[in-house]
Design goal:
By secondary structure, the chain is mostly helical. The chain contains 15 helices and 2 strands. A two-stranded antiparallel sheet has the order 1-2. The longest helix is centred in the N-terminal third of the chain and has 40 residues.
């Protein structure tokens, strides 16, 4: 009995000692922050196989499969979140326009989803990612490997992908399908931005032509240059400009593209009837539902947790926590400073519509740098975005670019700012090997010099020029086929019945007098 008691005592002592050793070892290993996430959850060793037990190869296969499966699930689920952002865009744009156009505005936000998707399915995905190479986070599949490349200055310039049409052949792979879904809903975000800038006077048939073009050709070209291994991503390896044009989740690839297209369409369509007087003064056209716009903004903010953290394409990349918190902080500072700026310096009132646009501006701006900056950097990005969006809205009004929802300012201006902020605020804790360049992404204020900023500036400039040209071409094609703008009578009546055949609010007869612009 004494022997058994002694053995139990030694066993208890041994277990306690083992726990203490383990705890102290963990404390020694984990007492330093790990902002990149690369040191957290690693395996120190793997036990040798014993007879009747799985071999090391089998264990490794199972671990590898589960690792990739986690990344698949993360990418798909975050893609589903981004898809739901379409509802947010529809509510924001419809709420910030007039009730007599609600069905038309909603219908554009709805139909752009299938139109853009089918264009992306037929050829857009191939143009954008057909030369991507290995999809590293989802098993390393490398069948998308045909990029049209030209040689300039002795360097390769990738221009467009040429594999993956109709998701056949090389793209008929599980990793390629997961990538398609995630990237398709990103394209859809770009596609829906101009529907706000051109709202309340855009002929629906012309919009349909645009919808086909955006997913198949317009969006994928610049997207290939940044995310598909094209020439803007190669600015680092070819010319030593930082890590090339870096855009983590799409401030330029998604938002600035949509903002530039919206700018060109708003300019070419001209302002809404009654928006500007002959003397240049402005008649504000009030939105019909602030509550709808605010709810839509919260839907978008929620979906952004798929947009930004999902862009790791890896649930196993623990940097997702930093990305998510940075996204949250920038949205808050953007909303707050847009509100204060309006209240203190512009209208002397805390404009609810600008609160919403301030939050969206912060989200747009943090989209590119969300993985590369600290929480303080994210706060700064949002503060600048909140002020920029207010001043930008007033600027475009002064030059008579009529943007009913502020889409150009939210997405175009702040998409550019988000990319440029990487060249200033990237803190060097993440991005080792990004675009094939050794070392982490580091901006000017963290000892990185100006090279990364120049790469961002080049990318932003190229985005503006390229999308302005493409938008102009598509606009002129639609003008020649069906015409882009509705007639004056249709615009005054409201687009719902003449264009869609149904009122957005059934049975409600709109008072045309109350629907005309008036001064505050």
């Amino acid at each position: 009995m004494k022997s058994r008691s002694r053995n139990k005592f030694f066993l208890f002592f041994f277990l306690m000692a083992a726990m203490l050793v383990g705890t102290s070892s963990y404390a020694r290993a984990g007492d330093q922050p790990d902002p990149s996430g690369t040191k957290t959850g690693t395996i120190a060793d793997v036990p040798a196989a014993t007879p009747g037990q799985p071999t090391l190869q089998e264990i490794g296969d199972a671990v590898g499969h589960n690792h990739v499966a986690i990344n698949f699930m993360w990418t798909l689920i975050t893609g589903f979140l981004v898809m739901f952002m379409q509802a947010g865009f529809a509510m924001v744009e419809s709420g910030l326009t007039r009730a007599k156009n609600a069905a038309h505005t909603m219908a554009m936000n709805f139909m752009i989803y299938p139109l853009g998707m089918l264009g992306f399915y037929v050829c857009g995905f191939a143009f954008m990612f057909g030369g991507l190479g290995a999809i590293g986070t989802m098993g390393g599949y490398a069948g998308l490997n045909h990029e049209l490349t030209v040689t300039l200055f002795g360097k390769p310039f990738g221009l467009i992908g040429l594999k993956g049409f109709l998701l056949q052949g090389a793209s008929y792979d599980t990793a390629a399908f997961a990538l398609f879904l995630f990237q398709m809903v990103f394209m859809d975000t770009t596609a829906t931005i101009p529907t706000g800038a051109a709202a309340e006077r855009w002929r629906y048939s012309a919009f349909m032509i645009y919808g086909v073009c955006i997913g198949s050709v317009m969006y994928p070209i610049f997207g290939n240059w940044v995310w598909g291994g094209g020439w803007l991503a190669q600015l680092g390896t070819n010319f030593g400009l930082g890590h090339g044009h870096v855009d983590f989740a799409g401030s330029s690839v998604v938002h600035m593209q949509g903002g530039v297209i919206g700018l060109i369409y708003a300019w070419l369509l001209g302002p809404r009837e009654g928006k500007y007087n002959k003397d240049g003064s402005i008649n504000p056209i009030p939105p019909h539902s602030i509550p709808m716009a605010i709810i839509g903004t919260f839907i978008l903010a929620f979906g952004w947790f798929g947009f930004n953290p999902g862009s790791t394409l890896a649930g196993t990349d623990l940097r997702i926590s930093v990305v998510a918190v940075n996204t949250m902080i920038a949205s808050a500072t953007g909303a707050l400073f847009a509100t204060l700026w309006m209240w203190w310096f512009r209208t002397k009132k805390p404009d609810p519509s600008m609160m919403a646009n301030g939050m969206l501006a912060g989200l747009v701006a943090i989209t590119a740098p969300s993985a590369f900056v600290s929480a303080g950097g994210a706060a700064i990005v949002g503060i600048v975005a909140g002020i920029l969006v207010v001043e930008s809205v007033f600027f475009f009004d002064r030059i008579k670019i009529d943007d009913p929802v502020g889409a150009i300012s939210v997405h175009g201006v702040n998409g550019a700012w988000g990319c440029l902020s990487i060249g200033l605020l990237a803190d060097g804790t993440y991005g080792d090997g990004w675009n094939g360049v050794a070392g982490t992404v580091r901006g000017l204020f963290y000892g990185g010099g100006m090279s990364q900023f120049w790469a961002e500036l080049i990318g932003v400039t190229v985005c503006f020029i390229t999308l302005a040209i493409l938008a102009f071409i598509v606009f002129k094609i639609a003008e020649a086929i069906v015409g882009n703008r509705v007639s004056r009578d249709v615009e005054l009546e409201g687009l719902d019945v003449p264009e869609m055949g149904i009122l957005g609010y059934g049975g409600v007869v709109m008072d045309r007098q109350s629907e005309t612009p008036h001064s505050r």
